[in-house]
């Protein structure tokens, strides 16, 4: 499993990872990824809470959680606005990403953002 560290440069769908080159998230997946999945941690700007999820396009999913696009989770409505705190992956399958999500959800708060990655 590849690990992606704290993203910077999240604007315009371009995510720069500490351990590698920038990757462009396009149409539900990383460009050239073959539909790989990402594990993401959101941080509520207002409440300081965290939320963990998986998606093919974490930036599009963030827009959903913030209400800019339809389809956000009910659990994230009260914590808006949300910011992308951490992105892990890509994972080869939804199953692998889901297992990593389960392990990460056992952590609480800021511990979800800390190393080591799931």
Question: What would you note in describing this structure?
Answer:
By secondary structure, the protein is an alpha+beta fold. The protein is 17% helix and 27% strand. The strands form two sheets. The chain has a three-stranded antiparallel β-sheet, with no helix packed on it. A three-stranded antiparallel β-sheet has the order 5-4-6. It is globular, with a radius of gyration of 13 Å. The model is unreliable at 1-14, 16-22 and 24-32 (pLDDT under 50).
Could you give the count of β-strands? 6
Using only C-alpha atoms, the radius of gyration works out to: 13 Å
Stretches where pLDDT is under 50 for at least 5 consecutive residues are 1-14, 16-22, 24-32
Number of separate helices = 2
The largest β sheet comes out as:
3 strands, antiparallel
DSSP strand (E) fraction? 25-35%
Key terms:
single chain, 118 residues, alpha+beta, three-stranded antiparallel β-sheet, 2 helices, 17% helix, disordered N terminus
Concise overview:
This protein has 118 residues and is an alpha+beta fold.
Provide the fold topology.
Blueprint: E1 14-15, E2 23-26, E3 29-30, E4 37-44, E5 50-55, H1 58-65, E6 82-91, H2 94-105
């Amino acid at each position: 499993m590849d690990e992606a560290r704290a993203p910077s440069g999240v604007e315009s769908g371009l995510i720069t990872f500490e351990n590698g080159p920038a990757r462009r998230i396009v149409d539900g997946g990383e460009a050239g990824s073959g539909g790989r999945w990402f594990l993401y941690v959101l941080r509520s700007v207002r409440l300081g809470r965290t939320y963990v999820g998986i998606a093919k396009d974490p930036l599009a999913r963030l827009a959903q959680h913030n209400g800019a696009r339809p389809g956000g989770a009910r659990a994230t409505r009260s914590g808006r606005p949300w910011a992308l705190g951490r992105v892990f992956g890509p994972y080869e399958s939804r199953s692998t990403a889901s297992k990593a999500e389960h392990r990460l959800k056992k952590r609480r708060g800021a511990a979800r953002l800390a190393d080591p990655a799931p």
